[in-house]
Amino acid sequence: MFAHQMVTDWRLTLTCFASITLILFLAWVWKAEDFTTADDAGPDGESYGYRDALKDSFLWRYGIAFASFLTLYVLSLVSFKKVFDEYTILNGSITNLLISGFAILGTFAGIYFGNKGLPRKPILFLAGIGMVSSFTFTLIFANSLPILSYIFVSISGFCMFLQYPIFLNLPHELKGMTPKKLTIMFGLFWAIAYAGQTIANIIWSFILGSAGYVPSLVFFIAVSCIYISLIPTFPETREAQTGNVQKAS
Q1: In terms of CATH architecture, what is 49-248?
Q2: Domain limits of the chain?
Q3: Tens of pLDDT, residues 120-166
């Protein structure tokens, strides 16, 4: 009954989400602590401006990679519910539940491995392959082996959020990072990422409506693979600490 009201009454939905956001904001203000990104940052780091950011190849690769990630993440939770219901024998509500449920477990796993000080690129690369390949197998078996598809979509949700905390912390761990540089980078990063995801979403919707289900899936998986292809181009932010972590263990 409550779930039905949340869907049918947009005022109730917005009120609930706005209230939750306000509560979380107040909790953050109450408990948040100031921190410095890098204590030894020099004057060169502080001179970083928006013009420098636009010339930063890492920022563009980082933003485009996240746009690819968001394409899989957003479409799998928002758009594919109706797609699964219409074009496959899968239940879209169940796929959403499995993705989001295993994503919670993946988030805790990502926090755990992120705090271990392990090299970042292998984790991101392997989790990215697991995320995209699992969702691909979900689509392949969607009309023949639904149980197998549900297993693969769960794995995809887990891998999706296993890398999420690690990925978003990469700029914090870059050598010479400063609060000013970080603020500028993330301001442009979110713009690049969501603009790219929006464009991909529009193209995917157009292909689905004009060319059909299968061509739209080919485009969807191809865009998602951009994330995997860009991970190896990132700098390894924990390479120098790997030996120390192994000795300490």
Answers
A1: Up-down Bundle (1.20)
A2: 49-248
A3: 999 999 999 999 999 999 999 999 999 999 999 999 999 999 998 89
